[in-house]
Every structure is written in C-alpha cells, then in structure tokens.
Amino acid sequence: MAIRVAQATKKYSGWTELLQLLQDAFAFMEERIDPPSSVHRLTATSLAAKSQEEALFLATDGDEVVGCVFASRQRDSLYVGKLAVRKDRQRHGIGRRLMDAAEEHARDSGLRYLELDTRMELTENHETFAAMGFIKIAEHAHEGYNRPTFITMRKRLADVG
Question: I need a surface site. Which of 11, 13, 70, 130 has the fewest CB within 10 A?
C-alpha cells in the first residue's frame, strides 16, 4: 500500500500506538546519548496535549501509523521535533516526506526557516539533516551539563515572502 503523509486531524486518537512508535524509534539512542531522551517523559496523554499546541504530521500505510513529526511555530521558523519512522520502514524516504510536509506547512504559514535540535553524539542524524539542506547554527548544553549536548540546525526556505 502507498504511504500517505498528512497533518493529523483533531479526531486522531491513536496516542498509545504513537507513543510506542516514538519509543521504538528512539531506542537506538539509549546507550549513546547523555542526558537521556525526553521521549522517556512522554505519555499518551502528553502526546495528545502536545498535538493541541503543535502540528502533528503522520505517515500512514492504510490505517497503520509508520512515522510522525511534530512542528511548532517559533518567531520566524517552524521547529520540528520527535521525527520518528518505524524501524522496519526506515530508509524508504518516509522521514524525508514527513519533513517535506513540515516544510510545506512552514511556507504556508509564511515562515522563513525550519529548525531542529539533534544530539551531539548522533552524527549520522547531523549528516541526514545536512543532506536535506540544514546547517548547524548553534551548540547548546542541557541544564546541569558543562559541555554541549545538542546542536541546532536550520534550513532556509526559498520562495517565502
């Protein structure tokens, strides 16, 4: 079946399944990053609340969710986070299609940039996002850390007024 990417409607109710998808997709980081991922603090209820404040884009195969990304407006940019694709569906362009949907949403909102954060240790993510047109613009440390723990990357959007 063909993968469909679209913004979730207010009727979406698969929060438990979405939480499982996020936890599974972020599991590879477990032994690699410090501090631990914020995905550990998510619940089905907090995801539902997050979707009220942010746009949620879902990649579906029939009735099954195989990927997601959240997006929130921040001044002149759309911040994207919690990009996840089910493990058995990775490397098939689903993540890129989710990011394309977020980019289209940013353009429609008149925003000039997409922005995201990624952990220092996850250099393969840095490379993936660079291939999508993102550049590193800053390094940051989580509270209580005296070394950079994540970077911010930004993509300038063309054709935005």
Answer: 11
